[in-house]
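Summary for the steering committee. One of the milestones for this cycle was to obtain a three-dimensional model of the protein with acetoacetyl-coenzyme A bound, which we needed before selecting residues for the alanine scan. The sequence and ligand used are listed below.
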Amino acid sequence: MSAADFLKNAKFETLKTAVDELGIATIEINRPQALNALSALVVSDLHELLTELSSRAGLNGEQDWSVRGLILAGAGDKSFVAGADIAEMRDMNEMQALAYAGKAQEVTKLFGALPFPTVAAVDGWALGGGCEIAMCCDFIYATESAVFGQPEVGLGLIPGFGGTVRLHRFVGSAKAREMIFTGMRITAAEAQEAGLVTKLFADRDALFNGVHETLKLATKQSPTAIARAKATMAATESQSISEGLTTELSNFAACFGTPDMVEGTSAFVAKRKPQYPA
Ligand code: CAA
């Protein structure tokens, strides 16, 4: 079964999935009664879905480019995700917290390793684990009414799904510290100014149209090149400039002679549009 067919047929209690004709997939966290808070069941559904999806999509085995982009959203018009499930966490001990947050961190890594662009479409609350799960996507688009924050210290906790690690990569160390140490909420406009959000939209419909338009652009590019660019950027994130350049160089050279590279460069020379995947 292709990655797209898997998503079209997937049945999860807490997730809604869809794929359009361009291979743009949507995963919607579907727990609106709790503002889409990440219960243990949501985390385990996401983990199972992403494990299956990543075993099929992209360069694994037979190349599968049936999915070319992914949108992560929350169901309903109130909330993207209002964080980890506080009621469930209240009764957890340290070992249970390790298992719960460990699995959620795996989910963020699985998102990050997907071979196509992923966008968090944030409408409403993106607090705590909600902000953290948005940050594991490649970039974040939001409605003007979206609200972001890392309120964990107000609960006697610290961020546990990647907030202390990823937030400063978007907004810089000082802004991340300001947000995490105060639990302050920031508006979508402030989030955009800080670099957390890439683009803002007037309402939910405009947001989804905007995400689709951007991902549509990506579907016209070489999927193998996107996957390689993404893997290269992930690898170089923890490297020095010199090590990063070496990683980039070997990945750049490895593109040469690939069907997509032959197609892309030949199409340019022949003054025609390239057809991907070649
Ligand atoms: N966990 C569990 N349930 C939640 C929830 C959460 N994070 N956020 C909201 N809900 C539930 C509420 O309990 C409520 O349920 P009931 O109707 O059964 O009472 C329902 O969702 C609606 O919420 P509110 O009535 O509170 O809605 P509101 O509009 O008045 O307020 C809000 C919205 C400001 C987002 C408020 O719900 C809130 O502060 N939520 C918690 C936000 C938060 O602290 N998130 C961080 C969690 S910790 C974390 O994420 C740790 C980590 O890094 C892994």
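Key point for the committee: The mean pLDDT is 97.
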